[in-house]
Specification:
CATH architecture: 3-Layer(aba) Sandwich
Structural class: alpha/beta
CATH topology: Rossmann fold
Radius of gyration: 17 Å
Order of helices and strands: EEEHEEEHHHEHEHE
CATH class: Alpha Beta
Mean pLDDT: 95
Helix content: 25-40%
Strand content: 25-35%
Oligomer: single chain
Largest sheet: 5 strands, parallel
Number of domains: 1
Low-confidence stretches: none
Strand order of the largest sheet: 6-7-8-3-9
Length: 205
């Protein structure tokens, strides 16, 4: 999978978040999008994912040398962000069962084994709305990381996690990110120190 940004930019009203950005992300490789809070890392990640259209330039997707339509990119991408919505009324078991009804889990995994990986088996049948912020973040990471996709996009993945949660995240990345394109938007080295390439949004203001 390849994602190419060609002279892209994004603005809100008259304020440019970034512009004149040309870059190619390829699989397998790991990338960190760097910048302080409020610099536009999350916006750039959403543009890369196809969730938001750029204000300038274009974003193209290809797989095996063949173009992938923007409307079909979703099947190849997993996404996690702190502000990502989860249906609070669903239990963890119901949420993951629903999620993996339209995205395959990684080979060898089932809903039950993924629940075990999260360490949330004791709360698997409780509404997610009753979860702490750290528990909810584990759910968001799990639905992304354990989806069988070529591309993994993570926005500030350790938000709300305690040290045990951070260590779990790093273990998951070591074990389950191999062979994928991974892009992490962060200003916390614990979240991205495994990334081979760094892209600073400050260079494209």
């Amino acid at each position: 999978m390849k994602i190419s940004l060609n002279d892209t930019g994004k603005r809100f009203q008259k304020h440019w978040i970034f512009r004149n950005l040309s870059f190619e992300f390829s699989q397998p490789n790991t990338y960190a999008l760097l910048g302080p809070n409020g610099s536009g890392k999350s916006t750039l990640l959403r543009v890369i994912s196809g969730m938001q259209a750029p204000s300038l330039g274009k974003v193209t997707f290809s797989r095996g040398g063949q173009p992938v339509e923007a409307s079909k990119v979703f099947a190849h991408i997993s996404f996690s962000a702190p502000g990502q919505e989860i249906v609070d009324e669903l239990t963890l078991r119901e949420f993951l069962s629903f999620h993996f009804s339209f995205k395959k889990p990684l080979s060898g995994f089932t809903t039950d084994s993924i629940i075990k990986e999260t360490g949330l088996a004791h709360a698997a049948d409780k509404p997610i709305g009753d979860y702490s912020s750290g528990m909810r973040q584990r759910v968001k990471l799990a639905q992304a990381i354990f989806s069988d996709t070529q591309v993994l996009l993570l926005d500030e993945p350790c938000t709300n996690l305690d040290q045990q949660g951070v260590e779990q995240y790093r273990h998951w990345m070591e074990q389950f990110a191999k062979g994928r394109m991974v892009i992490v938007a962060s200003n916390d080295a614990r979240e991205y120190d495994f990334c081979k390439e760094h892209l600073s949004i400050a260079d494209y203001k």
